Amino acid sequence: MDMKKRITLELRNRSPAEIAELVLDNSRSADGEVDGLTDEFTELEFLSMVNVGLTSLTKLPSLPKLRKLELSDNNLSGSLEMLSEKCPNLTYLNLSGNKIKELSTVEALQHLKSLQSLDLFNCEITSLEDYRESVFELLPQVTYLDGFDQEDNEAPDSEADDEGEDGEDGAGPTGVYDDEEDEDEDDE
């Protein structure tokens, strides 16, 4: 499905200004560009365009409230300077699985003053010598690179997920006892 059609479907008869989250994963972009997204999405805080075939961000509209942007598994190799112009309040940016090879490409993110988390996993740039140190030096505002801080501590999102799993484990035995009681009743 092409990106324009997908946006129309995701709107579900709402106006673009009512949308805070938009997931366009696996839709197809026309000519490798952002297609169908407009400046009318004034309240958008989360945008996901994973695996949509993007090669450029030049047609990205102005999204002043956007905080989280998922762009993994595309063909982006540049045009990242568009992000600081169009999405100045980004705190989270996932560019994993793109064609980013050089530090100079990432340098364009210096103007994203609120950026805290950057993911470049599975990009060629990660094979550069001193990759992590260089990116942290280039982007001092970034706390987490590829899910870890400079001291290799995991980003809190991952830890929060782990705590949730522990809670579910704790609830597990209750379910087991209930099942046993049900079995006992069946036996009688």
From TrEMBL:
Alphabetical UniProt keywords: Chaperone, Chromatin regulator, Cytoplasm, Leucine-rich repeat, Nucleus, Repeat
Pfam families in the cross-refs: LRR_9 (PF14580)
Alphabetical list of PROSITE patterns matching this protein: LRR (PS51450)
Listed GO biological process terms: chromatin organization; regulation of apoptotic process
Subcellular location: Cytoplasm; Nucleus
Molecular function GO labels: histone binding; phosphatase inhibitor activity
Keyword DNA-binding: no
Acidic residues compositional bias, start-end: 148-169, 177-188
Region of interest: Disordered: 147-188
GO cellular component: cytoplasm; nucleus
Domain U2A'/phosphoprotein 32 family A C-terminal: 128-146
Annotated family: Belongs to the ANP32 family.
Function: Multifunctional protein that is involved in the regulation of many processes. Histone chaperone that specifically mediates the genome-wide removal of histone H2A.Z/H2AZ1 from the nucleosome: removes H2A.Z/H2AZ1 from its normal sites of deposition, especially from enhancer and insulator regions. Not involved in deposition of H2A.Z/H2AZ1 in the nucleosome. May stabilize the evicted H2A.Z/H2AZ1-H2B dimer, thus shifting the equilibrium towards dissociation and the off-chromatin state. Inhibits activity of protein phosphatase 2A (PP2A). Does not inhibit protein phosphatase 1. May play a role in cerebellar development and synaptogenesis.
Name used for this protein in its record: Acidic leucine-rich nuclear phosphoprotein 32 family member
Species of provenance: Amphilophus citrinellus (Midas cichlid)
